[in-house]
Amino acid sequence: PSPADFVPRICERLGLSHATVKRAVQIAEKARELGVSGGRDPAGLAAAAVYLAAQLSGEHRVQKLVAKAAGVTEVTVRNNYKRVAEALGLSPPVLRH
């Protein structure tokens, strides 16, 4: 399965808007196109995409909640988030969230 397949379920559990779901799917797909791997579990990359999309959309969720919703660890979210943000060329202020 693709990381994008996990995004809607994670977003639903977090109560995120449809716009954020769409943005997270786009982030997950773009990250895969750029060669970012989620490791052994595609849910880790999906969680990172959701976390990043939520931050960019102003629907802030802490990594702990995103990790729980995705069934991964906070460390997985954090590590994947950094790789995705860097691959997408996002500025350091986004990385501080």
Task: Please provide a written account of the structure.
The chain has 97 residues and is an all-alpha fold. The chain has helices at residues 3-14, 18-33, 42-57, 63-70, 74-87, 92-95. It contains six helices and no strands. Helix 1 packs antiparallel against helix 2, helix 2 (18-33) crosses helix 3 and helix 3 (42-57) packs across helix 5. The longest helix has 16 residues, at 18-33.
Number of strands: 0
Please count the helical segments: 6
- The geometry reads as globular
How many strands, what sense, and barrel or not for the largest sheet? none
| Fraction in beta strands | under 5%
Key attributes of the depicted protein:
single chain, 97 residues, mainly alpha, 6 helices
